[in-house]
Write a structure and sequence with these properties.
The chain has two domains: 90 residues, Helix-hairpin-Helix base-excision DNA repair enzymes (C-terminal) (Endonuclease Iii, domain 2, Orthogonal Bundle); 110 residues, Endonuclease III, domain 1. 58% of the residues lie in helices and 0% in strands. The chain has twelve helices and no strands. It is globular and about 55 Å long. It starts with a helix and ends in a 7-residue tail after the last helix.
Length: 221
């Protein structure tokens, strides 16, 4: 089957199994940006605790957060883990955002996606997954987000080999799907659900909604 058609069938199958995901959970685009840093190497329930603490402290606003005291910020985001590292990464991101746009998402609308991505990646602590999450979910740019769940499913079903890079995984989707923000957002979210429910480190292949389409990568029933 042509790769474009296969990816489309995978998405449709997951959408039928899991329903529309409406991810990323946030009230504002800026909250998405903050959450993209906080969610590194932790689960979302811990991120929600840190976000709630920032809101209660009046720091869920670009100007205020950019000027926050580092020690206070570390205390507030402690539930998200790696709080010393994340506090510095978060400050770098927010200070860039304020300097670049005055804290106004709309002012970035005319900046090319590739340019914004390069600027985000130049910030220490902002890797490709975090940068693409910000671009896709906060700024509404058609850039596919790749995470560990995505790679696991792709490699297990031999769409790419285990040595594939982040950029190769990203190109797999962007090169064979329409450049559509809503599609990219929901497809990424569907793959997260797949990874959490079935495509686990110890997979539940026979129960997976993709089993009729892709078969069992373990070679079992």
């Amino acid at each position: 089957m042509e790769l474009s058609a296969l990816l489309t069938d995978i998405y449709r199958t997951l959408r039928e199994a899991f329903g529309y995901q409406d991810w990323w959970p946030a009230q504002t685009a800026f909250e998405v940006m903050v959450g993209a840093v906080l969610t590194q190497r932790t689960n979302w329930s811990n991120v929600e605790k840190a976000l709630s603490a920032l809101k209660a402290a009046g720091l869920m606003e670009p100007g205020a957060l950019a000027e926050a005291d580092l020690e206070r910020l570390q205390s507030l985001i402690r539930p998200a883990g790696y709080y010393r590292q994340k506090s510095r990464n978060l400050l770098r991101l927010v200070q860039w955002f304020v300097a670049r746009s005055g804290g106004d998402i709309a002012s970035l609308e005319r900046v090319p996606t590739d340019e914004l991505r390069a600027e985000l990646l130049s910030l220490r602590g902002i890797g490709p997954e975090t940068a693409d999450s910000i671009l896709l979910y906060a700024l509404g740019r058609p850039t596919f987000v790749v995470d560990a769940y995505t790679k696991r499913a792709v490699v297990r079903h031999s769409l790419l080999d285990a040595e594939c890079t982040y950029e190769e995984l990203k190109e797999l989707f962007e090169g064979h799907l329409p450049r559509d923000v809503e599609l990219y957002q929901d497809f990424h979210a569907q793959l997260v659900q797949l990874g959490k429910r079935y495509c686990r480190p110890r997979p539940l292949c026979s129960m997976c909604p993709l089993h009729p389409l892709l078969g069992d990568p373990t070679g079992e029933a």
